[in-house]
Design a protein that fits this description.
Length: 271
């Protein structure tokens, strides 16, 4: 267990709410911790209802509450979590916990809703089932509410520059294999454009992947509503392939990847 190291000797103090148990170490961090707990409940209600999760929400109460650990500072957080230097927080799926540190503003606005969405979505899908990465990361970013305008603006700008990938390429790209420091990558088809090759550095490729994933989720939710979106996720969870899940969730509108792509392009073209 993470806490078995240097902090074991210290007393964790506990705060509880309906869906969360929050742990912090020093009285100085109490006010920040209360703010985190408040924000966590608000985010939970919004995200759970967006994902159609509220009907099963007992899953996160009582002994199943998610644990949030607030470390006293960034350095201690990094040491205890083993995360890279830039990390502001993380989620651990196995013991349903979220880790961060006192004073992190990025944690409240971005990391907390993002990681919570991964946990809720993981519960919904089931721990063993594979979820398409674009969908998992797309939802988590869309639920960072403050980021939505940036997602829209950036995805539209990338689209008009011709730097978005086709949906097929998006689905086939394994982003974990991309080395961000690599200078050259070859790309397949650009969205709505011609097939071809482009030289792009690893970091831009990862950035575009994330923006594009979030935009595609945003399109499905904004254009066709959360209920259909939840149905789409449920179909994937139950083992349908992408086109099967699309046809089942959007029977009157989307039947295959070509139709999905055409409608998403229309959405990207709107002012
Ligand atoms: Zn994520």
């Amino acid at each position: 267990m993470l806490l078995a190291t240097t902090l074991a000797a210290q007393e964790w103090q506990e705060l509880k709410s309906e869906h969360f148990m929050l742990y912090f170490l020093s009285d100085e961090n109490k006010e920040f911790s209360r703010g985190v707990l408040n924000k966590a409940e608000k985010d939970y209600n919004r995200i759970a209802s967006d994902l159609g999760y509220s009907r099963n929400s007992n899953f996160w109460t009582w002994d199943n509450r998610v644990k949030i650990f607030v470390y006293p500072d960034h350095e201690t957080y990094l040491k205890e979590s083993g995360q890279p230097e830039w990390s502001e927080g993380m989620a651990n799926y196995k013991n349903k916990s979220i880790l961060s540190y006192s004073g992190s503003s990025n944690f409240l606005v971005s990391v907390l809703p993002h990681e919570m969405t991964h946990l809720i979505f993981r519960d919904f899908i089931g721990i063993r089932r594979k979820v398409p990465l674009w969908l998992d990361e797309g939802i988590a970013q869309w639920e960072e509410e403050a980021k939505r305008q940036i997602i829209k603006k950036t995805s539209k700008a990338c689209f008009s520059r011709g730097t978005l990938f086709s949906i097929k390429d998006l689905m086939e790209l394994d982003i974990h294999l991309i080395d961000k420091s690599n200078k050259i990558h070859l790309r397949g088809t650009s969205l709505g454009g011609e097939g071809g090759f482009l030289i792009i550095d690893g970091k831009s490729l990862v950035d575009i992947y994330y923006i594009e994933s979030a935009s595609l989720v945003g399109f499905l939710i904004e254009r066709h509503g959360t209920e259909n979106f939840t149905e789409f996720c449920r179909q994937l969870r139950d083992g349908r392939d992408l086109e099967g899940a699309l046809s089942a969730a959007y029977p009157a509108q989307i039947h295959n990847i070509q139709e999905l792509e055409a409608q998403w392009i229309e959405y990207l073209k709107e002012e």
